[in-house]
């Protein structure tokens, strides 16, 4: 039996390694022969081989023919069709936006004033790195392999199998220990490449043709390189690096060499400079105090870039041959601006170390324990995660626990369900990472778009409205029993919560509570410890449950708004349908009214409400969530700092008034208009406690201005800090901003200013200010006004000049010991008559 399905490639980066692996993984579940044909170039790929798929060069919008033949061809076609239609888009990787190499370099004016020696570079991973230059020159194994003498086909195949098994063991060891989600994913891709059947067939054919094992690896590696380098898609061309990495590891094993034999690594902090780098080499470099990477060749979609960014390692690409960097000299790379600083003077060393310190202080500021709105109303910011290796990244981003642990991901892409012990270890690892903060574990949510082959759930015409999630629990009671037992066992040691998906009525909720109670009694009888008072909640995803909260909340500890599904069910609108995209809008006023009803009904019964849908990670909707009264927001880890900052800047009373206005609108368009006006009309105070800096250790005007501008940027008051600094220096170039009495007032009007601002900096020791003969400066007031605010700008400066003439004002600014006191003084004395400045 033969079946076919035609479709167009919807991924803008084409079928790269991760979606290809998803196709391979699904295809491998079936015995049928499965192929993909590219209508553009005529190439035909084995769907059970990642390398075969990559070699077919499937690009965005290419016509693709999926063909299956064999005993289970229809089942295979159905599964792969579903994967293509519903799941493949989730495998798309965001492109890293970078400035092209050779574009104009933008350094802060304060740094340019100090005339550093530097090489312009292309920034690919942000951050500041300081260390000794270490040149990594990777030796080629090709000459050694070329000199080998063929023994016998059997012997060469045995050598190859032994080497492949050794490399596989190392990859599996990395996977076992790896906690970084991005690296885990890349290592899994490398493992699939190593075991790829297309790769293995070609290797064995080459050996059968008289090549040694090493020569076969070289030959097939180069064939894939030639194929992939022909692609016009940069992403596919860069997958050659992954194949090269696997081939090099196999060659090292065959030839008795190791990466470490290339050169001993430095003992102190270092920056690696190399022509190119493989992912495995990056992992090796991390065994020493690696600070940053400078590469001659590397693309923005390279897996080395993905790994560097996830590890917080700055990475730039530059022409190293022309730079004059010496082995062992201290250098600095700046992964935001794109520069390699060398031949460092003490002034430049100091400036860049301060820059690194300012970045760290900003990151520390963002990782506060609880996001708080203006009048100190706590809103918890938690993470949505799917694997335990995502926990460290979530902690780094400042997550206060987990609002949604998607346990179904542990059950997918395998032949049988994880047993109780595996689940216990997995959940305990996540809970331990966040202890004592809570980890909310969602019970199994499969069916619909998440099929488990081993459950044999029959296909349905509309699976999203069918047999899924909690509706499966009676039939698969043993499966759910093991999961609940694992969660309860974890609760004996760590703070976990249970959350149940897809509850539609009171009967389903009471059934789950009875199931939970029965399992608790079972554990009691076995003498197994657990937390009897573990908090148990449900997801509001089906509109019907929103109208039963008066009954459900009697024995429910919390609820979580799953806005993605709730919206599509409420509006009867498939969120994947392009033709219905105009309807799928979480700003629909009826949907907002539903959300408010849920929050109000829950709060009336003392039940807290969290939100874990897409709506929770959009900054512009934060005022809506606060106005609705949501207690917790759970979202993707990388969005946490932005959402936390947005929460902290809102006034709850204003948010409540906003929601009242939004609910009075008739259409989503009207809601958006009101929301846009709200953001445009938001006025911020002219100064803030965070804009007061005391005891700053600055040695010159450049350092002082840089620190003040950095503080404005941290406070969200500038669109572009480098451009704003340039505007400040334009005034400094024209005339001195020193007022006398030890005060300086740098100032500007700039389109880069988003909120009129005054920042104050008190120095640890006085410094010279320009070439003026008016003495030194120990107090600096920076005034940054929006473009067009000319009258207010001059009023503030004039008022400040008058105040500085008063000894008591100067004395207070020099002697008060807290930012709060200085802020109060500025508000009272300096800004009392300027409250209209916006």
Textual characterization of the structure:
The structure is a single chain. This protein is an alpha/beta fold and 838 residues long. The chain has 32 helices and 27 strands. The strands form four sheets. It has an eight-stranded mixed sheet. An eight-stranded parallel barrel has the order 14-15-16-17-18-19-20-21, surrounded by four helices. Strands 22, 23, 24, 25, 26 and 27 form a six-stranded mixed sheet that branches. Strand 8, helix 12 (279-285) and strand 9 (290-295) form a beta-alpha-beta unit. Helix 6 (153-177) runs antiparallel to helix 7 and helix 24 crosses helix 26 (652-663). It is globular.
Brief synopsis:
The chain is α/β, with parallel strands linked by helices and 838 residues long.
| Largest sheet composition | 8 strands, mixed
The assembly state of the depicted protein chains is single chain
Return Rg in Å: 30 Å
Mean pLDDT: 85
User: Fraction of residues in helices?
Assistant: 40-55%
Distance between the termini: 73 Å
Shape: globular
By helix and strand content, what is the structural category? alpha/beta
Parts with pLDDT < 50 across at least 5 consecutive residues: 94-103, 833-838
Total number of strands: 27
Order of strands in the sheet with most strands = 5-12-11-7-8-9-10-6
The helix tally amounts to: 32
Proportion of residues in extended strands: 15-25%
């Amino acid at each position: 039996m033969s079946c076919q399905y035609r479709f167009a490639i919807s991924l803008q980066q084409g079928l790269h390694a991760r979606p290809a692996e998803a196709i391979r993984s699904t295809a491998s579940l079936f015995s049928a022969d499965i192929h993909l044909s590219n209508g553009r170039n005529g190439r035909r790929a084995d769907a059970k081989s990642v390398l075969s798929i990559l070699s077919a060069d499937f690009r965005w919008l290419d016509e693709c023919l999926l063909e299956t033949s064999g005993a289970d061809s229809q089942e295979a076609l159905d599964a792969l069709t579903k994967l293509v239609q519903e799941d493949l888009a989730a495998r798309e990787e965001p492109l890293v936006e970078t400035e092209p190499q050779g574009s104009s370099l933008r350094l802060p004016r304060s740094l340019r004033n100090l005339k550093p020696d530097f090489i312009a570079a292309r920034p690919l991973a942000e951050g500041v790195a300081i260390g000794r230059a270490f040149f990594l020159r990777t030796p080629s194994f090709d000459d050694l392999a070329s000199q080998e003498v063929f023994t016998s086909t059997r012997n060469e195949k045995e050598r190859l199998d032994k080497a492949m098994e050794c490399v596989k063991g190392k990859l599996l060891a990395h996977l076992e220990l790896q906690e970084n989600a991005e690296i885990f994913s890349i290592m899994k891709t490398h493992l699939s490449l190593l075991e790829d059947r297309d790769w293995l067939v070609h290797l064995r054919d080459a050996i059968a043709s008289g090549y040694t094992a090493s020569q076969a690896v070289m030959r097939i590696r180069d064939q894939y390189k030639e194929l992939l380098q022909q692609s016009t898609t940069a992403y596919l061309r860069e997958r050659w690096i992954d194949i090269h990495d696997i081939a090099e590891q196999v060659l090292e094993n065959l030839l008795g060499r190791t990466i470490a034999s290339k050169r001993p690594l430095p003992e102190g902090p270092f920056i690696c400079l190399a022509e190119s780098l493989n992912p495995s080499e990056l992992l090796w470099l991390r065994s020493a105090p690696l600070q940053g990477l400078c590469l001659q060749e590397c693309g923005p979609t390279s897996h080395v870039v993905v790994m560097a960014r996830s590890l917080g390692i700055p990475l730039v690409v530059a022409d190293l041959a022309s730079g004059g960097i010496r082995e062992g000299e201290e250098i600095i790379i700046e992964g935001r601006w794109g520069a390699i600083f060398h031949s460092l003077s003490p002034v430049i060393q100091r400036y860049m170390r301060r820059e690194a310190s300012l970045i760290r202080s900003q990151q520390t500021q963002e990782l506060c324990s609880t996001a708080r709105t203006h009048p100190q109303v706590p809103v918890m910011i938690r993470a949505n995660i799917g694997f335990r290796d995502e926990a460290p990244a979530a902690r780094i981003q400042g997550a206060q626990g987990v609002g949604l642990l998607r346990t179904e991901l542990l059950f997918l892409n395998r032949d049988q369900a994880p047993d109780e012990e595996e689940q216990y270890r997995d959940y305990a690892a996540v809970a331990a990472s966040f202890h004592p903060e809570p980890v909310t574990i969602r019970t199994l949510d499969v069916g619909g778009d998440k099929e488990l082959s081993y459950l044999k759930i029959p296909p349905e015409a509309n699976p999203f409205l069918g047999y899924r999630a909690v509706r499966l629990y009676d039939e698969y009671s043993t499966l759910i029993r093991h999961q609940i037992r694992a969660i309860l066992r974890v609760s004996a040691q760590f703070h976990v919560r249970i959350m149940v998906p897809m509850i539609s009525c009171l009967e389903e909720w009471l059934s789950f509570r009875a199931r939970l109670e029965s399992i608790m009694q079972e554990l009691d009888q076995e003498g197994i410890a657990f937390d009897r008072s573990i908090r148990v909640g449900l997801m509001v995803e089906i509109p019907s449950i929103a109208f039963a909260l008066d009954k459900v909340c009697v024995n429910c500890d919390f609820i979580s708004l799953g806005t993605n599904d709730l919206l599509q069910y409420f509006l009867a609108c498939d969120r994947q349908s392009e033709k219905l995209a105009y309807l799928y809008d979480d700003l629909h006023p009826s949907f907002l009214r539903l959300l408010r009803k849920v929050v109000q009904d829950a709060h009336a019964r003392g039940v807290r409400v969290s939100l874990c849908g897409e709506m929770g990670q959009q900054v512009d909707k934060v005022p809506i969530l606060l106005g609705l009264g949501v207690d917790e927001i759970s979202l993707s880890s990388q969005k946490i700092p932005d959402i936390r900052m947005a929460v902290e800047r809102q006034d709850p009373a204003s948010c409540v008034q906003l929601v009242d206005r939004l609910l009075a609108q008739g259409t989503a368009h009207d809601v958006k208009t009101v929301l846009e006006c709200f953001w445009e009309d938001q006025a911020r105070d002219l100064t803030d406690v965070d804009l007061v800096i005391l005891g700053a250790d600055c040695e010159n005007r450049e350092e002082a201005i840089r620190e003040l501008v950095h503080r404005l940027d941290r406070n969200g008051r500038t669109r572009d800090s480098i451009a704003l600094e340039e505007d400040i220096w334009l005034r400094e170039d024209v005339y001195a901003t020193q007022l006398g009495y030890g005060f300086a007032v740098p100032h500007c009007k700039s389109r880069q200013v988003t909120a009129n601002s005054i920042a104050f900096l008190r120095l640890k020791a006085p410094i010279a200010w320009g070439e003026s003969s008016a003495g030194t400066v120990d107090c600096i007031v920076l005034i940054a006004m929006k473009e067009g605010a000319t009258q207010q700008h001059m009023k503030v400066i004039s008022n400040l000049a008058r105040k500085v003439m008063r000894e008591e004002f100067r004395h207070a600014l020099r002697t008060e010991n807290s930012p709060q006191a200085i802020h109060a003084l500025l508000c009272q004395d300096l800004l009392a008559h300027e409250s209209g400045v916006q």
